[in-house]
């Protein structure tokens, strides 16, 4: 990865770096401690990756949600999804709103899932006394 103060990449060819006689390929981005940084020193690729991973983990939580109550889903969401989204907040705090909306969409889906499960739990509590009276 070439980091430069220029607005656009230099026109001159970049010298090849050899390591053990083999050329080292030029990377467009690198990952340092789980944070992806591109050659322009922005974190947009990192936000996209985090949003994709968080959405995938949330879909896993949704697939097992029928086995849990709303508190269990909240705990699983906080441990698996939210912790992933909140890691290294300085990276996404400087991103444009269009990238932050990717994270907001995942959080909104999780809130919808938890609210729906809480509503189902309340309905089950209301219906259980009715079924015991009928028998």
Architecture blueprint of SSEs:
Layout: E1 17-19, E2 22-24, E3 29-32, E4 35-38, H1 44-63, H2 70-86, H3 89-93, H4 97-134
Antiparallel strand pairs: 1-2, 3-4
Helix pairs in contact: 1-2, 1-4, 2-4
Characterize this entry briefly.
With 135 residues, the chain is mostly helical. Helix content is 59%, strand content 10%.
Describe the structure.
- The chain is mainly α.
- The chain has a domain of 91 residues.
- Helix content is 59%, strand content 10%.
- The chain has 4 helices and 4 strands, in the order E-E-E-E-H-H-H-H.
- A two-stranded antiparallel sheet has the order 1-2.
- Helix 1 runs antiparallel to helix 2, helix 1 runs parallel beside helix 4 and helix 2 runs antiparallel to helix 4.
- It starts with 16 loop residues before the first strand and ends with a helix.
Helical element count?
4
* General form: elongated
Q: Mind summarizing the main beta sheet? A: 2 strands, antiparallel
Mean pLDDT comes to 85
By helix and strand content, what is the structural category?
mainly alpha
- Give the proportion of residues in helices: 55-70%
Give the N-terminus to C-terminus distance in angstroms.
72 Å
Q: Which ranges are low-confidence, i.e. pLDDT below 50, for 5 or more consecutive residues?
A: none
Q: Tell me what portion of residues adopts beta-strand conformation.
A: 5-15%
What is the alpha-carbon Rg in Å?
A: 23 Å
Strand order of the largest sheet: 1-2
Q: What series of H and E elements makes up the topology? A: EEEEHHHH
Could you give the count of β-strands?
4
């Amino acid at each position: 990865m070439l980091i430069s103060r220029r607005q656009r990449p230099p026109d001159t060819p970049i010298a090849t770096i050899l390591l053990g006689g083999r050329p080292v390929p030029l990377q467009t981005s690198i990952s340092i401690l789980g944070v992806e940084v591109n050659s322009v020193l922005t974190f947009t690729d990192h936000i996209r990756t985090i949003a994709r991973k968080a959405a995938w983990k949330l879909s896993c939580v949704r697939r097992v949600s029928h086995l849990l109550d709303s508190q269990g889903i909240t705990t699983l969401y906080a441990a698996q999804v939210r912790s992933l989204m909140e890691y290294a907040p300085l990276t996404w705090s400087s991103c444009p709103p269009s990238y932050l909306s990717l994270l907001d969409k995942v959080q909104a889906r999780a809130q919808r899932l938890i609210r729906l499960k809480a509503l189902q739990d309340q309905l089950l509590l209301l219906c259980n006394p009715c079924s015991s009276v009928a028998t």
